[in-house]
């Protein structure tokens, strides 16, 4: 997530675009991993809030960077929030609504 946001900001993209690029980087990296392992991508199958966690982590990156924090702290804060939310989602079985067939 942080890498996608960082590269988009370096390319002078608007903040929302940068955060969405971070979401795409984070979520679709996992999708590509699952496809390479010949498995159904979990991001599409289990209704866990992967993208929501990545979205918040991306905004944390933008906010901490706006405080002129060192690069390592920006990365740590973004990764920490993204991972922390993901772990909370697993622990408390948070889910997002799915499409009805």
Distance between the termini: 31 Å
Please mark out the parts with pLDDT under 50 across 5 or more consecutive residues, or reply none. none
Shape descriptor reads globular
One letter per element, helices H and strands E, the order comes to HHHHH
| Structure summary, number of beta strands | 0
Q: β content, as a range?
A: under 5%
Mean pLDDT metric: 95
Helix content: over 70%
Oligomeric state of the chains in view: single chain
Gyration radius from CA atoms, angstroms: 14 Å
Q: What structural class do the secondary elements suggest?
A: mainly alpha
State the domain count: 1
Biggest beta sheet attributes:
none
What is the count of DSSP helices, taking H or I runs of 4+ residues? 5
Report on the architecture of this protein.
By secondary structure, the chain is mainly α. The chain has one domain. The protein has helices spanning 2-10, 15-36, 42-45, 50-66, 71-91. Helix 1 (2-10) crosses helix 2 (15-36) and helix 2 crosses helix 4. The radius of gyration is 14 Å and the shape is globular.
Summarize the SSE layout with pairings.
Layout: H1 2-10, H2 15-36, H3 42-45, H4 50-66, H5 71-91
Helix pairs in contact: 1-2, 2-4, 4-5
